[in-house]
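Entry 14. Structure prediction run on the chain below.
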Amino acid sequence: MMKLLLSIFFLVISIEAFSQAQTESFLDMDAAIGSAEGTFSMAYIHNWKVGKRKKLLLGVGGRFSTYFGQNQFYVTAPASITSGSTGPGVFFKENIEENMDSLLINSAQVNAVNAKFNIGYQFSDKISLGFNIDLLGFSFGGERDGNYINGNQGQMVSSSPTPFNVLLISDNDIGSLNSELYIRYAVSEKWQIRGGAQFLFTEYTTDTEVQQFPEPNDRFRNKSLMLMLGAGFRIK
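Output returned:
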C-alpha cells in the first residue's frame, strides 16, 4: 500500500508539471469523538484536480493529531503475532486469539505528526467526497503506566507512544496513524464544513518486552472508530 500511494503521489506531480492541472489548498481543523475517547487534528492539504472534467482530487499534505482516551485497551500490535504472517494477505486474516495480550491504560494521550495522502471527488462547486490517510511521521507524548494483561494475570508496566509511524498494511502498520472518510460542503468561497468517520490507530511501546508468547513483544495498539466534524479554510 505504501508503494502504491507513493506511486500515485509521483504520478500527480508529473501531471502537475506537464499539464498544469488546477489546484486547491486547505487548512482543516477537526474534532472526533468515540467511546470515552476523542481527537483533535489540524491539517494542510494540497489537491490537484485531474481528469478531463477536473472532478478527481489527488493530494498530499500534513496533519497533527492529538488523542485522549480513558480506560482504553491496547492489544498486541505486530502482524507476525496477531495473524502469524506479514504479507499482503494479513489484511484478510483473523486474529489468533491465543496470541493476543492487552495493555490497559487509564489515561492515554498520544500526539502524532504525519504526512498524508488525499483522494476525493468533486460532485459540485459546493460538495465533495474524500478519503485521507497518514503515510509516515512521528509520535510523542508522556510516559504512562498500564496494566499488562495476559489471560487472568496482570502486572503494571511503563509505556510511551511508539516514536515512528509508517503505513504498511493492516497490522503491519507501525505507530499512530489517522484516516478519514468525509463529506466537504462549501458554505462560502473560503469556508467549508466537514463531517464523516475517523479511523485512528494509536500505539504504545512498553519499556520491556512484557509479552513473551509466541515471541517477545513490546508494542500494543488501539483502533478507534469515531464520528468526526470539522471546518476548513480555502487558501487557494
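The domain at 2-182+190-234 is CATH 2.40.160 (Porin).
Filed with the rest of this week's runs.
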